[in-house]
Write a structure and sequence with these properties.
Length: 262
């Protein structure tokens, strides 16, 4: 019976939905995390009687046909790149992006990765790095005797040195944006890399070329909303149960058929 296979595809689809939601909820407190949504498509149809064909008996065109669906399949797990809430941290090297753009990160293998996580640190040489020690691109080095560090909305990094009243510029942070940012590939550690789907990055200073602005001593939080994730999870659970009931009903029908044939 076709219903057994069709309902099984529905259960598999809802299982994937719950897996995606569980990852979203697990990352509710992950800085700069972007929630993921599972998307589905219906499978091929068994056309037993095609609409628009000619009725062989009377020569009339059939206005409707008979097409029986065979289930559902996963089409994509798309990442929702909406802005997360910005929260104050009072830490000099925490930087939030308000608007479009990603920080550029230099990976050990020479690749450039991209992130919305601006929780940066200084390494032993005073260079601005991620919590994993990856260098921020372009490189920013803070003098070890700097008494204060200021990062403007346009990404200009300035420091105050002992005995000086005027600030000194040590570099400018840059951002990159993509035509299709949802097409970026997540590689973990809050990092993304470009793909043919994302297109090549456009790089520039904050507040220019459509880039967002920076906010020092703040971090962008995850864009996961607990209420919507829980409601989606409940809906997926109910859909899973209904597909399971279809399998049970189809099994009972087959059982009745087999008893009749005895």
């Amino acid at each position: 019976m076709r219903a057994l296979h069709t309902a099984a595809t529905g259960m598999k689809a809802q299982e994937l939905t719950v897996e995606v939601i569980s990852n979203n909820i697990a990352n509710m407190r992950t800085t700069g995390f972007k929630r993921v949504r599972a998307e589905f498509q219906d499978l091929l149809y068994d056309n037993q009687r095609r609409a628009g064909t000619q009725n062989s008996q009377q020569g009339n065109i059939l206005p409707v046909g008979i097409a029986i669906g065979t289930g559902v399949k996963a089409a994509a797990t798309s990442r929702i790149m909406s802005q997360g809430n910005v929260t104050a941290t009072e830490k000099d090297y925490d930087i939030a992006i308000r608007g479009e753009g990603f920080f550029r990160i230099q990976m050990p293998d020479g690749r450039t990765a991209y992130t919305r996580d601006g929780s940066f640190e200084l390494n032993d040489q005073g260079q601005l790095v991620t919590v994993d020690g990856y260098l921020v691109d372009p490189g920013i080095t803070i003098p070890n005797n700097a008494t204060s560090v200021t990062i403007s909305q346009a990404g200009i990094v300035q420091v105050t040195l002992p005995g000086q009243t005027a600030t000194q510029t040590v570099g400018t942070l840059q951002l990159s944006r993509f035509v299709n940012k949802a097409g970026l590939e997540s590689i973990g550690d809050n990092l993304f890399v470009e793909t043919p789907a994302s297109g090549q990055p456009t790089t520039g200073v904050p507040a220019a070329l459509g880039m967002g602005t920076l906010l020092q001593k703040n971090l962008e939080q995850s864009n996961v909303t607990a209420v919507s994730e829980i409601s989606d999870m409940i809906a997926a659970q109910r859909a899973y149960e209904m597909n399971a009931r279809i399998i049970s009903a189809a099994d009972q029908m087959l059982q009745s058929t087999s008893q009749i044939m005895k």
